[in-house]
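Objective 1b. Sequence-to-structure analysis of GlxA family transcriptional regulator.
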Amino acid sequence: MVTYPHAHILDVVGPLEVLTGAKYFLPEGPAPYDVELVAAQAGPVRTTSGLSLTADLGFSQAMEDTAPIDTLIVSGGHGTMAALEDKALLTFVRHAAKRARRVVSICTGAIILAELGLLEGRRATTHWWWCPILESRYPKVRVERDAIFVRDGNIWTSAGVTAGMDLALALVEMDWGHDVALQVARYNVMYMMRPGGQSQFSAHLVAQAAEDPAINATLAHILAHPGEALTVTALAARAGLSERTFARRFKDETGLTPAAYVETARVQAARVALETRPQGIEQIAGEVGFQNAERMRRAFQRHLGVSASEYRDRFRGAQVGGDQIRDGPS
């Protein structure tokens, strides 16, 4: 794990906690991951929280080791732009990437990979706030703004903070299997797993951001009653607004049309039902407002890239489910 001053502490420790946690669910033997934290020098590195982490090695020391690296991870955080000026860091990452089986970035760590040309022609993501910066500075990178994490060949990139833990959980599943990843997820009280292509913006997050009282109340109603007839006419009447005024204010507050938000909320409700309940897909589709399984299947394809039945298959035998990794050409 590569870090630097003012990296986000969770970008470092979140993924590492997930990876090292696999040891509790494997037979006794060597640790599944031998972790080293690398920075400008061995010793304390101050993070954005004000807390310091202790680097095991400095870049110059790490450069002396020519052994293969299984996974090279580059952390992110507010110090990323300053890190781009650190020639020793860039040199180390460039050389380490050549001997790594896979290269991973957490949050704005993608900008460091892009600076080194490692993301040219590849699909990648980063924290939503930084996606426009990644696009403008590195036009050869195919930025996927909404994805929680993206895999393109042997390079993995993730959105911000907790998305790095989702990515790490996907690595655990790849290395040690679904059952171990499931146990790690439960141990960390994590969702197993948010699909890699899932939007960084859930229906609940959108609702939290709304400030207009009428729209805020409408969003809460949609989330609580996804199975109702949530037409613009019905929602506008509930908000006490004309349809035209309601649609305009709704879009201003959420960035989505009412229909788009309703579909997002229904997909979210359906996912929870598919993960936690034994009822058939047709029944669940009706309960969350899709009316039938075919409509729900199409909505799942639009939002998650898999059908509802495929989504449920990832959860079979467990009450929490599997991941969707967007593979690129290897």
